[in-house]
Amino acid sequence: MTIAVTLDRFLNGRITVAQPVSGFRAGHDSLLLAAAVPAEPNSSVLELGSGAGVASLCLAARVPDIRITGIEIDPELVRLANENAARNAFADRVLFVLGEAETSIFEPTPPRGEVEAPQQREALRVGGSRRSI
Fold first, then answer.
1. Structure confidence at residue 105 (pLDDT)
2. Per-residue confidence at 113, pLDDT binned at 50, 70, 90?
3. Calpha distance 48→14 (Å, rounded)
4. What class is the 5-120 domain?
């Protein structure tokens, strides 16, 4: 099943994303989340509940050479988020995977190695441990 989408621009047109017509739609909250992540070049970030990938893509636009893995429970949104990563030329460093935050983050190794700055929509908590959320 393919969901109905709109093409929207963020960061003054630097990012173009397809997102669902109905349900959650990214807006200023995604931009604020991306701006709040204390990430540096060559760091790794894990986003929980990635949706269409807007927060991760905005973060990728802000931080050079960052590696981001997004976990999303909805397979259509995972597909859409990966298409958005490719559309914005970030597919080599931003990846979205199907999973549940409750179980996926407790795997022995995150999909792309250690995570330095986890992000999620409801709360951003970055602790001393690279895997704390």
1. 55
2. low
3. 23
4. alpha beta
Nearest in space to 30 (alpha carbons), one of 115, 124, 130, 131: 124
In whole angstroms, give the CA distance from residue 119 to residue 43: 13
Per-residue pLDDT reduced to its tens digit, 79-91: 999 999 999 999 9
What digits encode the pLDDT tens for the residues 6-63? 999 999 999 999 999 998 899 889 999 999 999 899 999 999 999 999 999 999 999 9
CA distance 80 to 14: 18
Domain boundaries, the chain: 5-120
Distance of CA 130 to the CA centre of its chain: 17
- Nearest to 131, CA basis, from 63, 69, 51: 69
76 Cβ partners below 8 Å, 6+ apart? Answer: 1, 2, 3
The pair phi, psi for residue 29, each rounded to 5°, is -65, -35
CB 37 within 8 A of CB 125: no
